[in-house]
Amino acid sequence: MKPITRLALGLAGALSLAVPALAQTKWNLPAAYPADNFHTENLVQFSKDVAEATGGKLQITVHANASLFKAPEIKRAVQTGQAQIGEILMSLHENEDPLYGVDVVPFLATSFDQARKLWAAQRPVLEKKLAGQGLVLLYAVAWPPQGIYAKKDINTVEDMRGLKWRSYNVGTSRIAEIVGAQGVTIQAAELPQALATGVVNSFMSSGATGYDSKVWESLTHFYDTQAWLPKNMIVVNKEAFEALDKPAQEAIQKAAQAAEERGWRISAAKTRWYTDQLAAKGMKVQPPSDALKAGFQKVGEQLTADWLKKAGAEGQAVVDAYRKAGM
């Protein structure tokens, strides 16, 4: 065989081996919660479903526990293409647009059924907003209902005065202002250290966040107020999405639909499990007293009025659509 022929065949062989590698696309997916959190586990399953459906051509790597970007940075990272896809706590961006915060308006939607109806009313508006920012909305999953964590008895909202209160969005910051607590901005990944060092001694979140943070090592009480069900949403950089072929786009959408259904189902199923775990670790888990519930209803009314004022006609339309669906 002539040397030139051997060289040509060698190059052809090398190129044929390189084709699968060149055909593979790799995406990074930053997430803000621990690897064993149900949201993160759902993301990992979503990425596996996408890889399988695309024959391995699209590989999505999940970066848990804010290891790639901190929670407030993820949306911007996906917009600018620093990451191709990301999971975002929706209400973190309420200052950008009130519609991101409708799911954390206290006592507007307090059950999974109500939260699903609110999401159905909210989604078309958010899809349009995100599209204008170069993002494709894939799906959203709710957290379990929110309760109050503390290191003392809280029988009325007046008992919250002076607490070092963890804030993570507009709503939790406003609660601190209204009840006279000291708001401290702490994201989920930073919460265990903030609790251990006494930077905060109270907060409002789900049983899932309390469990992830091993809250029983620092606090003693959990009041199951069921104030709201915040949501995480998964968004994709629009250019990255449109660069994929049609079968890959369809595979992502199909996997996203499955992930949404699975995520809501798991969240509902684990709600009781999380509170049982808190109790098993020695925490005092209980419903709010009538006085505390009444006080929070008043706080909720004030925050609802605040939110509707900011959200204007667009926000009112979402709430009206939700109520029409039978909240």
Keywords for this structure?
327 residues; alpha/beta; 10 helices; 11 strands; 49% helix
Order of helices and strands: HEHEHEHEEEHEHEHEEHHEH
Overall residue-averaged pLDDT value? 92
Strand content: 15-25%
- Strand count, sense and closure of the main sheet? 6 strands, mixed
As residue ranges, the low-confidence spans are 1-22
Distance N to C terminus = 79 Å
The 3D shape can be described as globular
Number of helices: 10
Rg, nearest Å:
23 Å
Strand order of the largest sheet: 7-6-8-5-9-11
Task: Give the total of beta strands.
Answer: 11
Query: Which structural class fits the helix and strand makeup?
Result: alpha/beta
Helix content: 40-55%
How would you briefly describe this protein structure?
This protein is α/β, with parallel strands linked by helices.
Describe the structure.
The chain is an alpha/beta fold. 49% of the residues lie in helices and 17% in strands. The protein has helices spanning 3-23, 38-53, 74-79, 112-131, 170-179, 191-196, 207-212, 238-242, 246-280, 290-324; strands spanning 25-30, 58-63, 85-89, 135-142, 147-150, 164-167, 182-185, 202-205, 221-223, 231-237, 284-286. Strands 7-6-8-5-9-11 form a six-stranded mixed beta sheet, with helices on both faces. Strands 3-10-4 form a three-stranded antiparallel beta sheet. A two-stranded parallel ribbon has the order 1-2. Helix 5 (170-179) links the parallel strand 6 (164-167) and strand 7. Helix 4 packs across helix 10 (290-324). The longest helix has 35 residues, at 246-280.
